[in-house]
Amino acid sequence: MLHTLGLLLGCQLLGEVTARGFGLPMPGPVLGLALLVLILATMPTLAERLRPTTTVILANLSFLFVPAGVGVIGNFEVLSADGIALLAILTLSTVLSMLAAVGTFIGVRHATERWAP
């Protein structure tokens, strides 16, 4: 399994490095996939060794790409019952965290100005 994942991620990494290094207008994973196809074409027996791991990955692929909208729909009852309270809590916590960030920034600025030569 680790060898298979290493090969898949290595191909993707090489694709990313190639795409970014040469400034190609093509996504790196596409180049990595082309590299993987080339490797499998030159070594057909490798495909059978990769099959158990890739089958597990493909069977569980939906878990990796669950969109946020599915989560919203999955919790629609909670959102419809307590939507206003959740919105108020989100707004309040956002404002409080922004105020904490500003207070921290001001405190660090005063501390660094006081100790500056």
Biggest beta sheet attributes: none
Report the radius of gyration as a whole number of Å: 25 Å
Question: SSE order in H/E notation?
Answer: HHHHHH
Distance between the termini: 57 Å
Number of distinct beta strands = 0
Q: Taking all residues together, what is the mean pLDDT? A: 87
Task: Please characterize this protein's 3D structure.
This protein is an all-alpha fold. It has 6 helices and no strands. Helix 1 (2-22) packs across helix 2. The chain is flat and about 65 Å long.
Spell out the blueprint of helices and strands.
Blueprint: H1 2-22, H2 28-42, H3 45-59, H4 61-64, H5 68-74, H6 76-114
List keywords for this structure.
117 residues, mainly alpha, 86% helix
